[in-house]
Amino acid sequence: MSINLDREKESVVAEQSAEPELIAADSVTADLEVAKLAADLDDLRQTLQRRQADFDNYRKRIERERSEDSMRATARVIEALIPVIDGFEHALAARGGEEYDTFRKGFELIYKQLLDNIAKLGAERVEPIGKHFDPHLQEAMDRIETAEYEDGTILHVFDPGYLFHGRVLRPARVRVAVNPRPPSKNIVH
């Protein structure tokens, strides 16, 4: 029996001495799993942040496109109204008798309301008389040679121009001053 007891003691002692090694191995395995899980969690966080940023960019792009679509639609409406405004201006410029004065007051009221409404939509009327000609904002319909004004000065506006948020809806149609050129000195020998 003493041999059996000795063997049992040796087995218990062997198990006890092997136990710290097993615990250490389990601890290393657990540490590796924790590190892997932490790396996976970090990857998931980064993926989530990228997806959230992509979604925010998508939302901003859609909002910008909607705003641009709205502005284009408004610009088309204003462009369609510009000839109506021109018609009112021509009617108001006509001269007539006493009967016309009553009609004129009504025309003036409608004309003012129309101009106010397109201004509220974002249109800006451009009357460049006395300013320097800019081919991006005006269309030269006529030119007059004169030394009284600086070269390129706008002398008359046939039709005013209109801008919508900085974009030209219609250039102003104008008459421009052009300084006469001195006669060339062609000397023939």
Question: Explain this structure to me?
Answer:
The structure is a single chain. By secondary structure, the protein is α+β, with helices and mostly antiparallel strands. It has a domain of 60 residues: Roll (Nucleotide Exchange Factor Grpe, Chain A, domain 2), CATH 2.30.22. The chain is built from two helices and six strands; from the N terminus they run ααββββββ. α1 runs antiparallel to α2. The chain is elongated and about 140 Å long.
Short overview:
With 189 residues, the chain is an alpha+beta fold. It has helices spanning 2-93, 98-120; strands at residues 123-126, 138-145, 154-159, 161-164, 167-170, 172-178.
SSE layout and pairings?
Elements: H1 2-93, H2 98-120, E1 123-126, E2 138-145, E3 154-159, E4 161-164, E5 167-170, E6 172-178
Parallel strand pairs: 2-6
Antiparallel strand pairs: 1-4, 3-6, 4-5
Question: Low-confidence stretches at least 5 residues in length (pLDDT < 50)?
Answer: none
The separation of the N and C termini measures 147 Å
Element pattern in H and E: HHEEEEEE
What CATH architecture label of the domain at 123-182 applies? Answer: Roll
Write down the Rg.
43 Å
Structural class: alpha+beta
Q: Could you please say which CATH topology of the domain at 123-182 applies here?
A: Nucleotide Exchange Factor Grpe, Chain A, domain 2
CATH class of the domain at 123-182: Mainly Beta
